[in-house]
Amino acid sequence: MSEVAIVGIGMHRFGRTEGVSGRAQAVHAARAALADAGLRFSDMRFGFGGSHSAGDADTLVSELGLTGLPFINVANGCATGGSALIAADAAIRSGQHDVGIVIGFDKHPRGAFNTDPAVHGIGPWYGETGMMITTQFFGMKIQRYLHEHDLKPGALTTIAEKAFRNGARNPMAWRRTAIPAAEIEAAPMISHPLTQYMYCSPAEGAVALVLCRADKAREYTDRPVFLQGAAFRSRRYGSFEVFSPWLATDRADSPTVEASAAAFAAAGIAPSEVDVAQIQDTETGAELMHMAETGLCAHGEQEDLIASGATAIEGRLPVNTDGGCIANGEPIGASGLRQVYENVLQLRGDAGEHQVPGDPRVGFTHVYGAPGISACTVLTR
Amino acid sequence: MIAGRTTVDDALFVETPEGPALRGSRCAGCGAHTFPVQDGCPRCTGSSMVDVTLARTGTLWSWTSQGFTPKAPYTGTAAYEPYAVAYVELPGQLIVETRLVETDPEKLEIGMPMELVLTPFRDDGSGEPVHTFAFVGVSS
Ligand SMILES: [Zn+2]
């Protein structure tokens, strides 16, 4: 078995880029990642990639080069990028291939996602009556979580404040202006207790990563980042997921709990060793819940960590140092790979104005989304 | 028609002497419940589900508001807005997602007792209201 390294990273800036297709953004990211590794597309032995609403990743070869490589499309909702990465990890770890590329990209229309219930196996009544709405799910999930753990909603504001503050320090972020707490709280209520500025928006952007066998990594870069653990899980009976007309009265952990535990176990690294974490913040309640579900802290401990600044860039446990989904928006296909891109920057010491101090050594990423899936990675330098 | 009223989907409902109730499934093997009806059991993976009438009363498990008019496939109309949504626990059965008639956060509290009603959410072509289910608070 080969270990796996990331030797090239590339990104097309997130946000809104009028007149540039999602595919063009993907090609931009792929070329940047290849250049970063000092490789050409003809050196790639495989590709995995996907987008939710910007086209098929495998058609990018018409632009990148018709080299005959096996390029497999991945369509896994919010975990599309994470799943592509896990597939690449397996392809290298198994010895099947030495070097390849993963590409995640997207370009969504403005406004909340509107989803056809039939895609999720639910009758038309669910959409017609106004329940097929992701923002409601997040409101109800955090409402219940705050109740169960006796937490106050103030942390939801502080997390948004941090996201915009970090975004302001990240030249690749979409939202680059700090927003004061009072303005976040006074924004229109979307789904109680979450206001408009506590949610991320659908957006555009692309990320590509070049991966190779770890023992060859130094041929391409003097600063490889190693993918020590990567895991994907779907929901169990009793977990609380989006688009659920009913929940079981027996409660079960979210898929995040199992995916993160599996990634840490594969890496042989404990959550307490993490120096920088990028975790799914579709809205600020998600960041709050996921801090504990990933094992980075205990349930209920978040309030003090957040209020004390422990999760800020200069804190003990920096979370979403690039501004997360809230400051970058969520192009579904690219979002999970953005987190890995950010951690590679951090572990290389290349994050500039938003660099975590103290030479971080261990990075963690976590994506979570519909219909109850999670993908996590543990990275080291 | 359920209880003399047009609904979004009559298959969601059962008429009972106490009023309309939701129609679900119960696994003959392990006792798990689902809503709406389905053929397979998500708990034991068996396929021997039987129809069951779900409880008309329960307690508020979580809730939220709906702060904007949804896009399609939503077909509700302004006359029946705003609305809120919630999960209501039907003891021993399941936790059902539902609309709420009450939208004032001050009047919603997790744990409060609730009861199922039919509530209009749009009008049909002839101007007659089309109903879905909702829960309303009851005094305990
Ligand atoms: Zn069963």
Automatic annotation (TrEMBL), chain A:
**InterPro entries named in the record:** Thiolase, Thiolase-like, Thiolase_C_2
- Report the residue ranges that make up the Thiolase C-terminal domain in this protein: 252-379
A Pfam family this protein belongs to? Thiolase_C_1
User: Per its UniProt entry, which superkingdom is the organism in?
Assistant: Bacteria
**Does the entry feature the keyword Thylakoid, yes or no?**
no
Q: Which keywords does UniProt give here?
A: Transferase
Which molecular function term from Gene Ontology is one that the record holds? acyltransferase activity, transferring groups other than amino-acyl groups
Q: What is this protein called?
A: Acetyl-CoA acetyltransferase
Automatic annotation (TrEMBL), chain B:
Q: Per its UniProt entry, which superkingdom is the organism in?
A: Bacteria
Q: Which residues form the ChsH2 C-terminal OB-fold domain?
A: 52-118
Q: Which SUPFAM superfamilies match?
A: Nucleic acid-binding proteins (SSF50249)
Q: Which Pfam families match?
A: OB_ChsH2_C, zf-ChsH2
Name all ChsH2 rubredoxin-like zinc ribbon domain ranges. Answer: 21-47
**PANTHER family noted in UniProt:** BLR3430 PROTEIN
- The protein in question is named Uncharacterized OB-fold protein, contains Zn-ribbon domain
Name its species. Answer: Pseudonocardia oroxyli
